[in-house]
Please model this.
Amino acid sequence: MNRTQRFLTLWPLAAVLAVPGAALAQETIKIGVLHSLSGTMAISETTLKDTIMMLVDQQNRKGGLLGRKLEAVVVDPASNWPLFAEKARQLLEKDKVAVVFGCWTSVSRKSVLPVFEKDNGLLFYPVQYEGEESSKNVIYTGAAPNQQAIPAVDYLMKDVGVKRWVLEGTDYVYPRTTNKILEAYLKARGVKAEDISINYTPFGHADWQARVAAIKKFGSAGRKTAVVSTINGDANVPFYKELGNQKVSAEDIPVVAFSVGEEELSGVDTRPLVGHLAAWNYFESINTPANKAFIDQWHAYIKKPKRTTNDPMEAHYIGFNLWVKAVEKAHSTDVEKVLAALPGLEVPNLTGGVAKLLPNHHITKPVYLGEVRADGQFDVVWKTNGTMPGDAWSDYLPGSKDIEADWVTLKCGNYNTKTKVCSGQSYK
Amino acid sequence: MLGTELQVERRRLLDRTERSGRRARPNGALWLPSLLLALVVFAPHALAQSRDEEFLAVLGELGDASFLDKEHIVERLSRSGHPSTRAVLTAFLEDRLYVRAKDRKIVIVKSMDDGVAPFDLVDPVSLQDAGSGARDEVTRIGTNNRLRKLLKTTVARFDLSSPDPAVKLAAVQEMLRDLDQASIALLGGRAGVETDAAVKEEIETGLALAALDGGDPRARLDAVATLARRLRPQVRNRLAGVLEKGADGNFVEPDEKVRQAAAAAVRRIDRSRALYAGVETLFFGLSVGSVLVLVAIGLAITFGVMGVINMAHGELMMLGAYTTYVVQLAMPRHIGLSILVAIPAAFLVAGLAGVIVERTIIRFLYGRPLETLLATFGVSLVLQQSVRSLFSANNRSVETPPWMSGTLQLNDALAITFNRLYIVIFTLIVFAILLVVLKRTRLGLDIRAVSQNRAMAQAMGIRTGWVDAMTFGLGSGIAGIAGVALSQFTNVGPNLGQAYIIDSFMVVVFGGVGNLWGTLVGGMSMGVVNQLLEPYAGAVLAKIFVLVALILFIQRWPRGLFPQTGRAAESQ
Model:
């Protein structure tokens, strides 16, 4: 009797003790962060990990999402492409994350794509890329070629009067596809084959003297020459050093880069590089209240007042806010429901426009061209009027002209408008 | 011609100033009479004052101008004849021209730095100090490539009469990049009075380029003769332009003789440029080879002389590179000197690490190459991870000292970058010192004795254990020095060593194990072959070709370029 009584009085206490623990374990929403924290891409990707950590932290301070706290699960795929797939599987199958923010290089995205499609995960990919893809399970918050490469080349052709082109890239899928699109585009604009020189170097290439000398030679033919650089990762540092050493000045041969931003330049003496260009959809130097607030938050979070912000960080900012908005709209973190809620959502970007998620899983973005300043920041010298919608399938490649991606009405990422067949990057 | 243009421009400038002057002053009615009075009372002073005002007015427009407007403003400023023009344009070119938010006044910032302290300001008209301004109160007036080019040319025109021949030379060369009528007129004026030979030659080039457009065939022929002795690509392209046909099917150049002379000149220039291009490729090859020799030479001792397969060799180089980084952190104000300090420091750090590894691990594994390989591979992973934990996985930026950047311009067709020149010299010095150590010192004698016949050396009273440690330390220390050099060319990160370990083994095996001269010749020839192939095959294929050639070579001559001979070699 006595014993039973004691047992009964203890019961509510036990319940009180047990419930919050159980509720806490159930309540956090797990968010996967899949960025290389070591290896050749760490220079670029570590910052993106920190960005997501900051956004998660801010969201939690606002009270979390759907009344639950967010929890970031960070893994390090170490710039090793097959390891990306393994770590993605771990995030989706073991940690059961609701969403993954990750990848930088296209080869890493291609490596995780089958995993995301098999496990029906959701990946927000924050980097400008070569296009020619639209997966049901990926939201592309970086620029497609028509939001970066094509406008940049247009600017050089029309405003700078460039006649000869060097397409210099790292040897993997993004530079090769982008250069294929650019070559087709330039030829369609009347540039002759002998005025285009295409060259690839391996990841982490360090000895640039022969290449830079060759660029100088190609550029000395008396007609305005520009270099379109899709060099990726830490190979950029010795490349720009060599440009500076061999005195390739931006007034003679401007180099426009698609993968070099404030972060990549922070380790380089930028004084010899003044005037070289970068094409992005965001620059830290763009003066808007939203951008200033973001930079201040970033400095407060990272506790280093000199850390820069860059374009893929803004893409993560947009992607994170899109996801939060979609979860709130769907009242669920279930991938199917979130994916249904996402298209058509709009969130403000940091440079004073609106990013709208299109049915092809790309977003609208403004395009800016910046010239490197002596302090490693960029001066915007040209920008588009308003925003450009991202085009998944390039209009300049013969194979992809007729392909369309639409996850709202067609439910297909690779729909041929001529043959009316859905194939390839499609989800059944 | 130019004079009238200047006058017209000056009048326009005056008009604008007058208009803006009235706008700026609330008391417009009083302005003219007082100016007249001033003219009568103190005319020269007032003239200077009005010139200051018009200069300031034009300058003031920069505050809200577009890039295109800025170009016009720069042109107007350059014609104003105001004594401060050059200083203002130079400041503009160097990103030191700012506009103050509160009164829209243009100011020059004395010097730029990354700090937060207020800028020291300079008045653009008087060039006197004008107090200081907080950084958020002033906005930089941006430039773009076109504008900078215009500014450079404009400043160059001022520099043409500088007393310093080097400044003059740079000015003429800047003007030659894009010749226009104003530059040609200035060069023509300067040609008669210039005394410096180098400057005179460049001025002649400019005038000859201009003369090609003239009407007199005789003068054109002379111009071609002058230009035939130059190597600049602009000259070559201009001469090639003479040979082209216009849209109507006729030659641009009507005179047959001029065309023939130009064709001969183009051929001559092409021949010279091809020759210098060959020299350049050879130099590139030697510099790549020097890096290879430098990274391999430490291994030539540990692997070649001692026979230890040291997989951690790359990580010892990485330690050297990180030592450079730490030394630079310790002496941020003496970057130029830091490299010289880093060389002995890196030698000690990497050498010490080598001695520790040898005493604690490798000495128990002599004669068991497979275990040594595995153990040193483990050491390499440990070293990588400790650096990653200590310095983070991100690359560290090692600064290049000023004396190592830039190029040595030998002539218009051949320029050699200083950092590559230094690495070739540095490699040869290290090689020579190492040879002396091995051949002329007691330690070297001991090392050779132990490597040739350990038992005999021991019998002669040599402490073989101590010699082993010293030898390994020497090889490791050299690897550290190589790391200092690498920090100037490539990214300093935990993976630095992995990129070079294969190369260094290749060089040692190719050159002949145990032979330092083999390492030198092997490394240099691999570098040259690589650079000869790269323009045709690309960086990836060139490397593959070199590898395949190496495999074939080792198949045929397994002992490398300089095989060791004698009984010691047989027993290995």
Summary: Confidence is low (pLDDT under 50) at residues 1-28 of chain B. Chain B touches chain A through 55 residues (CB under 8 Å). The two ends of chain B are 86 Å apart (CA to CA). The first strand of chain B starts at residue 97 and ends at 100.
